[in-house]
Amino acid sequence: MELIPKTKEFGKAFEHYFIKELINISKYKDSNYDFSYYRTESGAEVDLIVTTPKKDIYAIEIKSSISPKASELKGLKSFQAVCPQAKLCCASLSPKKYQLNDITIYPWEELLLSV
Prior knowledge:
By secondary structure, this protein is α/β, with parallel strands linked by helices. Helix content is 32%, strand content 29%.
């Protein structure tokens, strides 16, 4: 099955690929990261929560777009309310890293190597 950019299927495959790669890199480096996700009863969610052995927390939303919009990242803001020390990140197809308020938008490859 061909994956076509900007489709729901492409987005799901991209999310799955990113999560699996991050888990594999963590295992390879013997990083002992804990992986989870966040979801509230009201439907706010974050695709991936990574906790390091030093207790650093990364909340990662995964978007298969070049420039994710703030409206697509509301789950990160919801998570920040319950975990203010979390680093808010978005893995995307953006060609460069940039800030969107207090959320860092990363090219997905760069974020894989920096967590």
